[in-house]
Specification:
Length: about 170
């Protein structure tokens, strides 16, 4: 179950906001939720604020160029933000995944070394945090590129996208 939850969490990170585009927040992760069982309710409640914050991720905004009436200058700025963020996020996510695989290998030994499990788990969390922070930095910078009306439109879309997730079991605070 730990491997499934770790993989689902990392998949959400790697897929990022583009996967959540138009899918009610968690990017169609229903299958993973069913496989992982009760622990996914906690993941929903933890990820909901993150996904809402990522509504202004550059890649999500670029997918809505016409709906948001983005200018060519805005598209240029958002593209630059997206392109600068990707290698940082992807590198950190790859490091996180490597540590999760190492942790899984340790956990499958006949007598797992809990110190090694802790070390790999904490390293994976650190790298996941770095990947999330790169994405959040880009989303914050992208939000500043938008006009007030565009921000209101994105906020309304993000709020509407959270409602289905709340009905699926997330708290939606």
């Amino acid at each position: 179950m730990m491997r499934t939850m770790s993989m689902v969490a990392l998949a959400a990170l790697l897929a990022g906001p583009a996967a959540a585009q138009g899918m009610g927040g968690m990017g169609g992760m229903g299958g993973g939720r069913q496989m992982a069982g009760m622990g996914m309710g906690m993941m929903d409640s933890m990820m909901a604020p993150m996904m809402h914050s990522m509504a202004t991720a550059p890649e999500r905004l670029l997918l809505r160029t016409s709906a948001l009436h983005l200018t060519s200058d805005q598209v240029t700025q958002l593209t630059a933000l997206r392109d600068a963020m990707r290698p940082v996020r992807d590198s950190a996510a790859q490091q996180a995944m490597a540590h999760l695989r190492e942790m899984d290998d340790v956990m499958h030994q006949s007598a797992p070394d809990t110190a090694a499990v802790r070390m790999h788990f904490e390293a994976a969390l650190q790298y996941m945090g770095q990947a999330h922070m790169a994405a959040l930095d880009a989303a914050a910078a992208a939000r500043a590129v938008l006009t007030d009306d565009q921000r209101k439109q994105v906020d309304a879309m993000a709020s509407a996208g959270r409602r289905p997730m709340m009905r699926r079991g997330g708290r939606g605070h």
